[in-house]
């Protein structure tokens, strides 16, 4: 079974940035790095069945989408700075049609959110994460693709695109979590369900 996590990073920049200012001039790239880290890494290992996508919508060249495949990545460590360095490498790459590989398991694309969700609907069921959704406890999650917003949530335009393609709006409860915390909770939940 696969698991896929998508973050829509509305402010994250789309050209190389200063590694010393991830939360400032890089447009909350710290959130994106933590999201990728929590999607892929466990203690001393990588989740081979997990994939993380970051939809970068900040200036100056939106949209760019990053893809990190747990089954393929090498030369990647869980800390924010290391992941940010890899993102910088992806943002320097000349992006061709479709996905451009920048390192083992790391890809960049110029596709739009709608195209990404069309592609991911082939991989599994799409669940939109929102506090007011149906309780995740009652939802069967088969090859789930989870879509989350950043610190600003999801714009009305992007929400329309997601709602057209998702199976369900799913909630982790009333507490508002950061996107990377949602990933940690969902990975735990999926791990526990797999053990049973
Ligand atoms: C920091 S929250 C967004 C906060 C933003 N101010 C808002 O009101 O939408 C980041 C994202 O995590 C997800 N999220 C946070 N808490 C959640 C919860 N309890 N259940 C489901 N998704 C949640 C949502 O996708 C949200 O867009």
UniProtKB/TrEMBL annotation:
It comes from Geoglobus ahangari. S-adenosyl-L-methionine binds at residues 129, 149, 182. Specifically catalyzes the N1-methylation of pseudouridine at position 54 (Psi54) in tRNAs. One of its GO terms (biological process) is tRNA methylation. It is found in: Cytoplasm. NCBIfam families: PRK02135.1. Keywords: Cytoplasm, Methyltransferase, S-adenosyl-L-methionine, Transferase, tRNA processing. Homodimer. InterPro entries: Alpha/beta_knot_MTases, TrmY, tRNA_m1G_MTases_N. Belongs to the methyltransferase superfamily. TrmY family. The keyword Iron does not apply. This is tRNA (pseudouridine(54)-N(1))-methyltransferase. It holds the Pfam family Methyltrn_RNA_2. Its EC number is 2.1.1.257. Its main location: cytoplasm. It catalyses: pseudouridine(54) in tRNA + S-adenosyl-L-methionine = N(1)-methylpseudouridine(54) in tRNA + S-adenosyl-L-homocysteine + H(+). One of its GO terms (molecular function) is S-adenosylmethionine-dependent methyltransferase activity.
């Amino acid at each position: 079974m696969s698991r896929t996590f998508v973050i829509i990073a509305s402010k994250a920049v789309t050209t190389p940035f200063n590694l010393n200012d991830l939360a400032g001039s890089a447009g909350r790239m710290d959130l994106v790095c933590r999201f990728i880290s929590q999607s892929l890494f466990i203690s001393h290992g990588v989740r081979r069945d997990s994939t993380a996508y970051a939809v970068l919508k900040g200036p100056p060249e939106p949209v760019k989408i990053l893809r990190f495949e747990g089954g393929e990545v090498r030369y990647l460590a869980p800390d924010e700075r290391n992941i940010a360095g890899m993102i910088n490498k992806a943002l320097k790459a000349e992006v061709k049609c479709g996905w451009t590989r920048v390192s083992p398991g790391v890809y960049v694309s110029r596709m739009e959110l709608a195209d990404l969700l069309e592609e991911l609907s082939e991989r599994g069921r799409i669940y939109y994460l929102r506090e007011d959704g149906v309780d995740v406890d009652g939802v069967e999650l088969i090859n789930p693709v989870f879509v989350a917003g950043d610190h600003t949530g999801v714009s009305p335009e992007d929400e329309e695109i997601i709602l057209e393609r998702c199976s369900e709006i799913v909630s982790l409860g009333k507490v508002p979590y950061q996107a990377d915390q949602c990933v940690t909770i969902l990975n735990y939940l999926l791990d526990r369900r797999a053990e049973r």
